[in-house]
C-alpha cells in the first residue's frame, strides 16, 4: 500500500489517498474521506487496463455533491421508512434525507466523514484498514459505534471488503460499498449491455416510496429473474409496476444461502471488453441499482458526462427497512452482539 496526501476538507483536515496494487497490475485507489474508491483499474481480455468505477478526478468533486460514488454507506445502508424506527420501546427519529424516508445513514452518513487509515500487514494481499467512531446520537442513531473497514487486494484480482463494528448500545447497523461499475470503462456509454446473473429466487418488492412491502416475491416470470444471465437492458423497459417505481432496477434480491458463509451472489460480464465481475458476500441481500437517477448533469472523470444508466451498483446488504420489519433478518447489534460482514469483488475476463 502507498499513501499520499490528496487534499484538505473545508475545516482544514487532511485527506489521504491510499493505493493498493497487486502483481497482476490491478490498481485500487481509496481516499480516507468517505472510504471512497476513487478508481479501480482492471484488465480486459487483451490485458488493457481501464478504470471501471464512476467518480470524479479530485476531492472537490465529491465535496460538491455525489450520488455516493464509490463510498462506504452507513450507519444504515438503503432506506428506513418514514425516517424512524422503534427499539426497546423508544422511537428514534432520523434525518428525512430521501423524503419521506431516510437513506444511507442520513445527511452526514459514513460517506461524508473522515476515516483514519493504517496499513494492515499481510503476506497475501495489499491491505488498508479504515476506522471511524460514530458518536451516540449521530444522525439520530443510538449508541456509540466503533467501525472498521478493511480493503484487501490479492494477486488473484480479489478486492475483499471486511466490515466490523462494536456498539455501546443496541442500534441498527448495515454497511455497504456503493461503487458504480461500468466494465467497459467509466464514461464509456451505458451498462444496458452488461450481462447479469444474480443467485436469488426472490426479491423484495417496494411501495411507491421505495420501501419494501414485506413480501418476498418469486422472481420467476418477472423482469427480476436474473437466475440465468440477462442483460440489464433486455427487460428494463417493460411495463411493470416495480420497474416503474424504481425507474429501473433499484431492488433488493434475497440471496440463496448455502453451507458456506461466503456465498456467490452475482456475476456481471461486459461482452465487448470481456471483463467479468463476481460478487461473493456474507450478507443476506444484494441491491441491484441500474443508475436510474444519473441524468447527464453530473460530469465525472475527464469531464465525461454520466447519462442515464452509466453505471450499476451491486450493494451487498441487510434488507432495506429491516429495523421496522421483524420478518426480515435482524440488523440490530449491541454490546453483546458485534457486527461482521465480508464482500469480495473478483475481477476476471471471459
Give a structural overview:
- By secondary structure, the protein is mainly beta.
- The protein has one domain (2-349): Beta-galactosidase, Chain A, domain 5 (Distorted Sandwich).
- The protein is 3% helix and 41% strand.
- It contains two helices and 29 strands.
- It has helices at residues 59-63, 241-246; strands at 2-8, 14-21, 27-31, 37-43, 49-51, 71-73, 79-80, 84-87, 90-93, 102-103, 116-119, 125-134, 145-154, 158-167, 171-172, 176-178, 195-198, 200-204, 217-218, 230-231, 250-255, 263-269, 275-281, 285-289, 298-299, 305-306, 313-317, 332-333, 339-349.
- The protein is globular, with a radius of gyration of 19 Å.
- The mean pLDDT is 96.
Walk me through the topology.
Blueprint (H helix, E strand, L loop, with lengths): L1 E7 L5 E8 L5 E5 L5 E7 L5 E3 L7 H5 L7 E3 L5 E2 L3 E4 L2 E4 L8 E2 L12 E4 L5 E10 L10 E10 L3 E10 L3 E2 L3 E3 L16 E4 L1 E5 L12 E2 L11 E2 L9 H6 L3 E6 L7 E7 L5 E7 L3 E5 L8 E2 L5 E2 L6 E5 L14 E2 L5 E11 L1
Antiparallel strand pairs: 1-2, 2-3, 3-4, 4-5, 6-16, 7-10, 8-9, 11-12, 12-13, 13-14, 14-29, 15-28, 17-20, 17-22, 18-19, 18-21, 21-24, 22-23, 23-29, 24-27, 25-26
CATH topology value: Beta-galactosidase, Chain A, domain 5
Strand order, sheet with most strands: 11-12-13-14-29-23-22-17-20
Q: What integer is the average pLDDT?
A: 96
The CATH architecture designation is Distorted Sandwich
By helix and strand content, what is the structural category?
mainly beta
User: How many independent structural domains?
Assistant: 1
Distance from N terminus to C terminus (CA atoms, Å) equals 29 Å
Helix content: under 10%
Task: Supply the number of helical segments.
Answer: 2
Radius of gyration: 19 Å
The overall strand count is 29
Principal-axes geometry comes out as globular
Report the top-level CATH class.
Mainly Beta
User: Which residue ranges are poorly predicted, with pLDDT under 50 across at least 5 consecutive positions?
Assistant: none
**How much beta, percentage-wise?**
35-45%
Largest sheet, in brief, is: 9 strands, antiparallel
